[in-house]
Specification:
Radius of gyration: 18 Å
CATH class: Alpha Beta
Strand content: 25-35%
Number of domains: 1
Structural class: alpha/beta
Number of strands: 12
CATH architecture: 3-Layer(aba) Sandwich
Number of helices: 6
Helix content: 25-40%
Order of helices and strands: HHEEEHEEEEEHEHEEEH
Bound molecules: 1-O-pyrophosphono-5-O-phosphono-alpha-D-ribofuranose, uracil, magnesium ion
Catalytic activity: UMP + diphosphate = 5-phospho-alpha-D-ribose 1-diphosphate + uracil
Cofactor: Mg(2+)
InterPro entries: PRTase-like, PRTase_dom, Upp_B, UPRT, UPRTase/APRTase
EC number: 2.4.2.9
Keywords: Allosteric enzyme, Glycosyltransferase, GTP-binding, Magnesium, Nucleotide-binding, Transferase
């Protein structure tokens, strides 16, 4: 869990039911940039030579193969811009997923990922980790394509969701979850309490 006063402040405004969509979108972007700092701590790098106007020295470059960033639509799309600013060389894949609000099961309506991601560091973006069903399915797609190193960046998580993801992944891969705050619990409708409501609706408006 990220522990920083700026993150706590922005998250509090994000939770506020009176925060409008433009402010919500800006805060999501700012928060992901702060979380990405922690999430990319172990991004693979290589040593390179660089010539400054004064001398030649050794520096660091993000190594190839390039990391892969995958926002889970809709709500994860709100995190892409903030992540891309920090990791501009990363490739971007897309997953469109929807939680059936009656069964709480995840349904995939779009899957646009590279065919082989063996050896790639992958970053999944989704602001909300509730029951964990969506993230578990998304991680399974990445593991089927050869990923072994997955980092999920979320804004809020329920303890139940974190446990479910951990149990599902087991020792199949290295999965790290970077989250701004772990909330109390899920309510009967599978919403995070206290949470922030439906992140997709707050970013983009209500759809039927
Ligand atoms: O952990 P889970 O119980 O699976 O719930 C979390 C999922 O629910 C939300 O998406 P939603 O289905 O509302 O789609 P949206 O992003 O289009 O609003 C959220 O962005 C996660 O993807
Ligand atoms: O609290 C929740 C749970 C699932 N999806 C959301 O957007 N919010
Ligand atoms: Mg939603």
């Amino acid at each position: 869990m990220a522990d920083h006063p700026l993150i706590a402040h922005k998250l509090t405004v994000l939770r506020d039911v009176n925060t409008d969509s433009p402010t919500f979108r800006r805060l999501v972007e700012e928060l992901v940039a702060l979380l990405a700092y922690e999430a990319t701590r172990e991004v693979r790098v290589e040593t390179v030579e660089v010539t400054t106007p004064v001398a030649t020295t050794t520096g660091t470059h993000i190594s190839t193969p390039r990391p892969l960033v995958v926002p889970i639509l809709r709500a994860g799309l709100g995190m892409l811009e903030g992540m891309s600013k920090l990791l501009p060389t990363a490739e971007v894949g897309f997953l469109g997923m929807l939680r059936d609000e009656t069964t709480l099961e995840a349904v995939t309506y779009a899957n646009r990922l590279p065919q082989d991601i063996t050896g790639r560091q992958t970053f999944l973006l989704d602001p909300m980790l509730a029951t964990g069903g969506t993230l578990i399915m998304a991680i399974d797609y990445l593991l089927e394509l050869g990923a072994k190193d997955v980092t999920a960046i979320c804004l809020l998580a329920a303890p139940e969701g974190i446990d479910a993801v951990r149990q599902s992944v087991g020792d199949r891969a290295e999965v790290k979850i970077v989250v701004a705050a772990v909330d109390e619990r899920l309510n009967a409708k599978g919403y995070i309490v206290p949470g922030l409501g439906d992140a997709g609706d707050r970013l983009y408006g209500v759809v039927d």
